[in-house]
Amino acid sequence: MTMPVVTMLLSVGCLLGCQKSTASKPVRLPVAPAAPQIHTEAQPRLPIIRLFIGAAEIETEQAIRPEHRERGMMFRKTMGENEAMIFVFQQPQRLGFWMKNTTVPLSAAYIDSAGKVLEIHDLKPLDENPAQSISDRIQYVLEVPQGWFERRQIKPGALIRTERGTLQETYFGN
Question: Strands 106-111 and 138-145: what pairing?
Fold first, then answer.
């Protein structure tokens, strides 16, 4: 070997041996939060279930998955008099519903885990201010055409059931 080659090999070996080891600390890249979904059209009709509230019966779309709850009635042009959408949440909580990109006037019943209507709110088309629940025990929200509850004389305290039993039994098996 010639002297320049040996010098070069020694220099490379020294450089490799002198570098700090990063094996003990993994590199953690910052994780950017998921970008909010931007919706521009109505979602397809969701699976239907029949709900019973007193003597009233209503055909109800089920918004169970987060992406279905997020889009809800956005961009829909109409809602039949005897149609509804129920939003199902994993845990009771304080909720607020708004009408972003929703032109159909709606009323929303805020319902506890036992299926009892605790509050009813009228929602204004395109209003992005949430109708905040007073209670922190809301697990379901039922949206219907505005005035539907009033026309059927359904008030807070009414109990909602499905064709399969209570809301809890239907959605959580308890």
Answer: antiparallel
